[in-house]
From TrEMBL:
One of its GO terms (biological process) is negative regulation of double-strand break repair via homologous recombination. It holds the Pfam family RMI2. This is RecQ mediated genome instability 2. It comes from Anabas testudineus. InterPro entries: NA-bd_OB-fold, RMI2. GO terms for cellular component: cytosol; nuclear speck. PANTHER family: RECQ-MEDIATED GENOME INSTABILITY PROTEIN 2, RECQ-MEDIATED GENOME INSTABILITY PROTEIN 2 RMI2.
Length: 138
C-alpha cells in the first residue's frame, strides 16, 4: 500500500495536546500558541485533541460548533474527514483532533480526525476532565 512521504512539519510536530476550549482561549499567540499551565510552566501547542457536544453544523461552510465544559469551539474542514459525517449530528458527543487555527475570541481548529463517543458519553465526559487535568499537573 502506498504511503506518501511526510513533510518536515509533519515529522517534527509533537503529539496532540488534550485541552479544553477555555484553556485554548487563553493561550498566547505569536509564533504558535502557548498555553500557560501555571507555576511558571507553559506549553507550545499546534495539534490538539478536544472533546465536546455538537451544537451546530453548517455543511455549506464546512464547519461545526461544539461545546465543552468551558465554552464553545469551532471545527473547520468537517467535510474532509473520513467517517466524520456520522459525527455531525446535533447533540452527539465527539472527539476532534486538529490543528489550531485561532484561539480568540473562540478557538478554531482544522479537523484531522473525528470520532463519535456518544454511546458512552457520560463516561467519556468524566474521564475527559481527568485526562485534561493530568496535563496541568505535568
Amino acid at each position: 500500500m502506498y504511503k506518501p512521504e511526510k513533510t518536515t512539519a509533519e515529522r517534527t510536530r509533537p503529539p496532540p495536546v488534550k485541552v479544553l476550549s477555555g484553556q485554548l482561549r487563553t493561550a498566547n499567540s505569536g509564533n504558535g500558541y502557548v498555553m500557560n499551565l501555571g507555576r511558571g510552566r507553559s506549553l507550545l501547542v499546534s495539534l490538539v485533541w478536544m472533546q465536546g457536544t455538537v451544537v451546530d453544523v453548517q455543511l455549506d461552510r464546512n464547519t461545526a460548533l461544539l461545546v465543552d465544559e468551558t465554552g464553545t469551539f469551532a471545527v473547520q474542514g468537517v467535510d474532509n474527514i473520513p467517517k466524520g459525517k456520522p459525527c455531525l449530528s446535533q447533540g452527539k458527543y465527539v472527539m476532534v483532533m486538529g490543528v489550531v487555527q485561532a484561539v480568540s475570541p473562540e478557538p478554531v481548529i482544522r479537523a484531522v480526525k473525528m470520532a463519535d463517543l456518544s454511546e458512552l458519553a457520560a463516561l467519556h465526559r468524566r474521564m475527559w476532565k481527568l485526562e485534561v487535568a493530568t496535563l496541568s499537573r505535568w
